[in-house]
Amino acid sequence: MSSNAPRHIRLTSHPEPQAHRWPLRWAAPTAAERGPVIGSVTRPADRNVIGTHGGSYSLYRALAVSAGTLSPLQRPDLANTQPVTDIGPYPQWSEPGKIVSLDPWGHVVGEAFGDAIGEGIDIRPTIAITKARLNMAELNALIEAGSLQPDGRVLHRGGDVSVTKAAIDPVWWLPGIAERFGTSEHELRRTLFEQTAGMYPELVTRPDLAVFLPPVGGITVYIFGEPHDLANRKVPLTCRVHDECNGSDVFGSDICTCRPYLIQGIEESIRSAQDGGVGLVVYNRKEGRALGEVTKFLVYNARKRQEGGDQAATYFERTECVAGVQDARFQQLMPDVLHWLGITKIHRLISMSNMKYEAMVDQGIDIGERVPIPADRIPLDASVEMEAKKAAGYFAPDAPTEAELARTIGRPMDSM
Amino acid sequence: MSSNAPRHIRLTSHPEPQAHRWPLRWAAPTAAERGPVIGSVTRPADRNVIGTHGGSYSLYRALAVSAGTLSPLQRPDLANTQPVTDIGPYPQWSEPGKIVSLDPWGHVVGEAFGDAIGEGIDIRPTIAITKARLNMAELNALIEAGSLQPDGRVLHRGGDVSVTKAAIDPVWWLPGIAERFGTSEHELRRTLFEQTAGMYPELVTRPDLAVFLPPVGGITVYIFGEPHDLANRKVPLTCRVHDECNGSDVFGSDICTCRPYLIQGIEESIRSAQDGGVGLVVYNRKEGRALGEVTKFLVYNARKRQEGGDQAATYFERTECVAGVQDARFQQLMPDVLHWLGITKIHRLISMSNMKYEAMVDQGIDIGERVPIPADRIPLDASVEMEAKKAAGYFAPDAPTEAELARTIGRPMDSM
To answer: What positions does the domain GTP cyclohydrolase II occupy (chains A, B) (predicted)?
Structure first.
């Protein structure tokens, strides 16, 4: 541990004397009026939020400090890290209640609060925007089959795809989160505290701090074509909002449609950008319906072993038995990132999810066509999930009957 | 919120009267002597750890309770969720200091503590083991090219791969973690508390609680072939230990070798299992060197924009400027999962990382051959990372000279 580490434990449950210097006025029209989000641990007196930067990764920073490889007083050198493209400001940024789970000014802190940073205030970006080239085996196969054509701008010969991408850490404005979930801020704070077994007592002791940097996963946004076009209703926008599924997205597990539907989202986004439109894939870190992978694998076992086998008819019931809830992804917060990008209309939504669709419509975003996954892209063992979801309200031209539902049985455990 | 929710806020910073009923004796030889890990929020009196189950996902459970869709008193119905295969017990489970970051009994709680669970104690698995079929475009291409042959057991016609997989949530035994990082338990607890801006005051107020369920990502293990063979030194074991990189693992970004090396690990694991051996891929949720994706994208921008372009010679420097540390993955804890699986020898390690290698050797695991990624699988823009790592000690037959290092320049930002 560095020798200049503070030697007394700082209590966080009582206001620091200077906390008033950096008030946050959520949804104010400019960055200056809104004020900077300060989650620094190097100058606690400046803090105006609960929690700290980097979500879960703050625990790894703590290990780095423990191991003596990171100074506890370290601050980022932000030279050359600024966004590769402008995003906003858009009117949605200051419409009350539109954005409650991320900081719309999170990518421009160097520009908006440069003077304060120069003065020594530890203000950090919660959003980073860069460019990348992607190369995916499935897209290469589509090029080879003649189904995708390189154009030299979006899709290159050899299969490279040019994208602009943004990583977004969660920044929760607690009054807005409570409203979105139909509860009071007081109840929300108390439940967050109790259900995490006491993480951040400030949730209940510091009602003056309304912003929380929760240690949960963030969002990655992939933009195909011109980022500014996302906010232009006249430019056709193809969009997939995808929730993380490591087992399929990375390892190609055939029990769900996650990676095939993600590929379809990327493919259609490329086509849209090639045809004068724009494409967007939003990737939310919400593994296993935001219940985590341990719960997910427990549910797989319960599904495969139940009497009658892995049935579409009992698909949601098994998750509810193990987790107490069918799904914890809560699409209510998902449209925030669309508001951040200035989106008011999605011309083609690559999703069958009624929850995603309704969350977008509730937030005032117009949706044109909804595009199902083609039957020939549904992996063998994923029909159980697909039929169960259709029966539960997923958008589909052909919702199954109860008899069909009962007949849809997945692969038994002993032939995995 | 359910009507039977407790109406007073429970303080967690003072011992509950019955806490002594479930003492934890870490590394005890049997599950009964070790005692159950109880992170329940439904009966706080039984708790014997700091934090709660599900890592980060406890915050989503809290949102589910806030939204009224999950009872705050819910407990899992574990019927049919038990592991699909035995793992252990192995001697490593009770050797002091061998396993400090997961609960080796985490998958057998239903069996080991069934009586207590029946009595109403809320004991939950921290590990789940299931089976799966994988299907990946890259493997299908290798089959088509004749480089992989289906055998009907490990690799099926049509490209399906049979695996056993386990999801593992972190369970940190703080005295052991401190020892692994060369610090005192007192300093570790204090640093975890301070660097997270005050997450879990019990870290500093409750020295009697030595186990912490941190809200960080876990581990997924993919086993190719017979799981019991992992612990048999005579059965050839091919292994890749892979740290998460969403940009490459899922989206195929060409700035690093992550997905190509992961595919190689899977491919070689399949070959090993087909040849009478066994294969293992360990996937650690440590995005962006455990610094997170926002930091990663900031570093990409700083690399591409620095004077002289994206150079291998300054590769590590750029991360250190932004994050204060080159890498926060800390392979010191990584071998725990290998001990859990009973592994004492890895015949073929599909990795060039000196940090992973040294961590394994330090933990008494014998390593045979180390297998580099073939040059023709390194994506175009990833040579910067690869040459920088070789120069820094990565295993390679051909470490670059300083002049070669200076000549390795990546794609400039304006031609992304």
So the answer is: 228-372
**What is the nearest CA distance from B263 to chain A, expressed in angstroms?**
9
Please state the separation of Cα A304 from the chain's center in Å: 30
Eight-state DSSP code of residue B100: -
Look at A196 and B84 and tell me if their CB atoms are within 8 Å: no
Which of A62, A167, A187 minimises the CB distance to B293? A167
B72 contacts in chain A (CB < 8 Å):
191, 194-195
Residue of A329, A336, A348, A370 with catalytic role = A329
**Which one, of A66, A287, A91, lies nearest residue B244 by Cα?**
A287
Strand bridging mode A278-284 / A161-168? unpaired
CB B194 within 8 A of CB B149: no
Q: How far apart are CA A195 and CA A99, in angstroms?
A: 24
Burial class from Cβ neighbours inside 10 Å (0-12, 13-18, 19+) for residue B402 reads exposed
- B354-369 confidence digits (pLDDT tens): 999 999 999 999 999 9
Task: Specify whether the CB–CB gap between B250 and A249 falls below 8 A.
Answer: yes
What Cα–Cα distance (Å) separates residue B334 from each residue in A96, B262, B284, B292? 45, 17, 8, 18
* Residue in chain B lying closest to A63 (CA): B192
* pLDDT given for residue A1 in this prediction: 34
The residue to which tokens 């990795």 are assigned: B351
Cβ neighbours, 10 Å, residue B221:
23
Residue to substitute from B123, B172, B188, B295, interface A, most A β-carbons within 10 A:
B295
Positive or negative torsion for Cα A130, A132, A136, A139 = positive
The Cα of A12 is separated from the nearest Cα of chain B by a number of Å equal to 6
How does pLDDT run across B301-327, given as a tens digit for each residue?
A: 999 999 999 999 999 988 899 988 888
Helix (H, G, I), strand (E, B) or coil at A134: strand
- CA dist A308 and A105 (Å) reads 53
CB contact under 8 A, B379 and A200: no
SS3 helix, strand, coil % of chain A, rounded to 5? 40, 15, 50
